[in-house]
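Q: I'm teaching a short session on how sequence maps to structure, and I want students to see two examples side by side rather than one. Could you give me a first protein with its sequence written out and its structure tokens following it? Keep the formatting plain so it prints cleanly on a handout.
A: Of course. Example one:
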Amino acid sequence: MKLFKTVLLGLLPIGLFAQNCEVGYKVLYTIASVERHPKRDIGYPYLISFNKTSQMIYLSKIKPKPKYKILDSRTIDCMDLRNCVFIYRELKKRAIKNLDLGAFQINPIYHKYKDMDYFALKNSLLIACSIVTNLKNKYGWSWKSLAKYHSHKKENNLKYQYYLKRYALGK
């Protein structure tokens, strides 16, 4: 929790956040809270989650062997920016692209940015802001539209709405 708050608060004085993001702090903090891994703090940026768990086996084929910690059946902690970018690029070479990356678990299939941006918290924050802004402009402000950050599928959207409300309302 400290990491995300520290970086986000660091953006506010220099005006970067206010100048480039029209989404409120609490909205982005709530998304970061829902997207965090239970074994890492809110805003921890060095995460790669496989949407097809069977593809985690490809980690063992990367040479030279990178450092990472397996957090669960679909997520690794890639430990630092350089290592995360290396692992991500190696996975892309093997056509493993359906991944959720960084603190905001951004899927590069749908949101294409520079490889390092997914794992650099400030950049990831601005990407998440852009995604939420586009959703707001297209669908308006509602739990349903905000939950489209995670999925447009109804069954996934409803579950994500529940988590957003739980974190936003402190329940």
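Q: Perfect. Now a second example for contrast.
A: Example two:
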Amino acid sequence: MAGLWRVSDAAVATASVCRTTPWVRRLTALVAGVVWLAAVLAAALPYEPIFHPRPPRGWVGGPAAAYRDAATQKVHLYMLYNPSATTNVSAAWYHVTSSDYAYWTREDPPTAISADRWYDTDGVLSGVMMNNGQNTPVALYTCEDSGAMQRQCLANPTSADVAGRRLFNTLVKSPVNPVIGADSVPQLVSRGAPHDPTEWWTNPAASGQWLIAFAARQSTSSGLRSSVVVFATSDTSLQGGYTFSHSLYDDTSGGGGGGVRLTAQTLERPDFFTLTGAGATSGAGERFLKLSVAEWRRDLVVYGAYAAAASNAGQYIFTADTARRATVVDYGCLYGGKTFYDPIQRRRRMWGWIQEDLAPSSVGANGWAGMQTIRDVVYDTTENKLRFPPIREMQALRASRVAWSTGLTVTSAAATTVLTGSSSLAKYQEVIATFYIPPGVFDGSKYFAANPPEFGMRVRASADASRYVTVAVRMPIANATPTRGYRQPGTVLQEVAVSDDVDAAGSCATQCLQAVPLCEAWNLRLNASGSYCSFLSTPAPLEVDCTAQTSLPNVPLLLVERAASSSIGSLTSVGGRAPLTVAHPSYVKLHLFIDDSAIEVYKDDGTEVVSSRVYLPGGDSLTGVSLYTRNMDAITADVTVFTMSSMWAAAAANNAATRANSASVL
């Protein structure tokens, strides 16, 4: 569900810092830094995760770039970083490395690029790092000057480092920076300069030419347009020679599915990729365009084809498949994801930024903000969509199996306790539960005007079960026909006109279900100009409106509910539509990773994902797990719970030494 106070207050408040004048930004950062410095004098940081990459202190935003070195087999992750405060000011690229995706090392020096040139004094922003045509790594990043003007800049590892240890912990800026100017795309609007580069790829229409794409904002005869624009270079070293080529995609091209456009939303952080090797697609030539939609604070993947434009055979464009609904990467607080290709494993993976869900003043007191998560990218030929499952390397962080059971009976009478909350248990857990459900209840064939059925689990629970976080799969309260004379208030995702010569209500229902990725309800309203469908992400109690009718898709919802958690952050539910899978409609698998204040929920191996945040005072004893149902007959379930250890290599070595010493004593 979009429209949470986290989005409107916390996320937008930090985003507004980037849109004020430069001197206000610097003053804001300075004041925040004073508050932050006082907070971090404490020895321990509150609500701190142990298996999500992040600096020990300061703010991190989205992934800046990721690179797997085939020579050393090391994974290099660079993330946006403010070392001085917990506010959204990207002053550097923070650098961590791993050889196995399980255990990570914070590099020294910790920052590979810092904001120290006229062209990037106000931002070393997102970028890309990959090998050029000479098999040498190159980084390109969006650089922002003190006037908030964005350009594109290059940074390279030194020749000695490439030939030697290949640490890539210091990237040297090109003397010809910036290599792409702010005025290099026709019809740009203010602050609409190209930003957030994709990976490079070779031009299928011109041998020896490389292409790279960026998000941009343009003004056309049809109004404002958010675009993904392409630049070309014939320099195989990728060090220069960039010229504007054409638009790869714009928000008039559809992409929500069913031909619904993204309604001039602000598009960020595009990724343009195909899948080969592990996780490959079923369709030859199929391409994926990942977009971060700023107004929705959600990442989407649009499906389509990459082929020569009808008007120009020398320009290849992305054409969205209007018959398919875009996939939501995460219904929760993940944003700004970035994929990369691992040449060792021959698979594509996605890094994403898990944001805070806490008032800015409390974030500053904590002394740190933000973290990264990593997921696989897999095309599911049965479900006909991408999945984003957890990476298998997370199994290496399992410390011990503390609960497991098969064939548990779960009833509506009382929750079935799996673990009782206790400070003797770690608050870092992996929970895997499979629920076997009866037919005809969650498949949309029945409507529930009240008391909808649901099942799920309660985690981070107290010993007396009075405090907990609920992870639920629930049918909505819905009717088979639209409710006339009422409308649903809530967050409007977009609004489209409906022709008077069609079944207007049926059109709204179809578009909500099949076209608009985050739609959980719709209103049909009449005014002097005609009929309009409004699509909402946050349904609310009905309000009287004699000109309207309303309804919502009869599809199960995957929800993380925090109302009973006593979190000091947002208590609003977060989630989205999560139908039963085609492959196994008789059961649902919920796979959770609980890392103190971070909770990630993967339904059916990443077919749908929800990430959430909870900040629990006295949380050391809030470690209980239980299963429950409501408004339905008894079901059975299998469940396993592991405690998790730290991902940081130094901590892992200490843990191993402790275990060895304990064994020698025994």
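Q: What should students look for in example two?
A: Point them to this: Helices lie at 5-17, 22-39, 159-163, 360-366, 504-514, 649-665. Also worth mentioning: The first strand starts at residue 58 and ends at 68.
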